[in-house]
Amino acid sequence: MRLSVIIIARNEARNLADCLESVRFADEIVVVDSGSTDETVDIARRHGARVEITPDWPGFGPQKNRALALATGDWVLSLDADERVTPELAAAIAEVLRAPRHDAYDMPRLSSFCGRFIRHSGWWPDRVLRLFRRGTARFSDDLVHEKVVAGDEAGHLAPHLLHYTYPDLDTAIAKMNRYSTDSAQALHMRGRRAGVGAAIGHGAWTFVRLYVFKRGFLDGRHGFLLAATAAAGSFYRYAKLSLK
């Protein structure tokens, strides 16, 4: 069966080449770009990807549905530009496509924070549904934290997907600021409201949940910084909502 890999991107020149190299086994690669000003588009084309450029940014869910609509394979593997398919995962995907028992499959994702792979803090095993038979699933319309909505119960792949999400603290802070803005907007569109007290409460609970209850302290200083960054993101999400 033919496999399409779909990726949405904007200014991902630092990540995209390694991501595309990891899926050279795919029959088709579709990259939907939302106005990159770096070499993202050129890198995608050099790796044989079909590139579509959109003039707007509708949010993560709608943009991924645009990419999905362009796929022509029997099966679809959705990736972010900062993710990598390991050889073990590639072999597991190939085995599934030879004799699929489900219409969708999830896989564990191992994520890196400032140079360290995180095994606690609620980040592992972080199973994500990314492989599905085309026509049986779509992405939710969420502006952020979108997910694949599939009708069938998902099967499980054992090998993990690598996720280089935060190479340094500057990137983590920038993403936290951007995501908190999008999340506040999404909450506001759903009719949610909040005050400063809610912002403080959500921020404090996020830190305690990740660092204590999710055992982030076992990830050393990286676990502390991860919990603090996540807490700041939660605080700013509701602080921004309080100003709308």
Key terms:
single chain; alpha/beta; seven-stranded mixed β-sheet
Task: Explain how this protein is built.
The chain has 244 residues and is α/β, with parallel strands linked by helices. It is 41% helix and 23% strand. It is built from seven helices and 13 strands. The chain has helices at 13-21, 40-46, 60-70, 87-98, 169-189, 196-213, 220-242, and strands at 3-9, 28-33, 50-53, 75-80, 83-85, 104-107, 109-113, 116-117, 128-133, 137-139, 148-150, 155-156, 161-166. The protein has a seven-stranded mixed sheet, with helices on both faces. Helix 1 runs parallel beside helix 2 (40-46). The longest helix is centred in the last third of the chain and has 23 residues, at 220-242.
Number of helices: 7
Biggest pleated sheet: 7 strands, mixed
Round the Cα radius of gyration to an integer and report it: 18 Å
Shape: globular
Number of strands: 13
Fraction of residues in H or I helices: 40-55%
Query: How far is the first residue's CA from the last residue's CA?
Result: 48 Å
What's the average pLDDT? 97
Taken in chain order, the helices and strands follow as: EHEHEHEEHEEEEEEEEHHH
The side-by-side strand order for the widest beta sheet comes to 3-2-1-4-9-6-12
- β-strand percent reads 15-25%
Instruction: Pick out the low-confidence regions.
Output: none
Q: Give the structural class.
A: alpha/beta
Write the layout of secondary structure elements.
Layout: E1 3-9, H1 13-21, E2 28-33, H2 40-46, E3 50-53, H3 60-70, E4 75-80, E5 83-85, H4 87-98, E6 104-107, E7 109-113, E8 116-117, E9 128-133, E10 137-139, E11 148-150, E12 155-156, E13 161-166, H5 169-189, H6 196-213, H7 220-242
Parallel strand pairs: 1-2, 1-4, 2-3, 6-12, 7-13
Antiparallel strand pairs: 4-9, 5-13, 6-9, 7-8, 10-11
Helix pairs in contact: 1-2, 5-7, 6-7
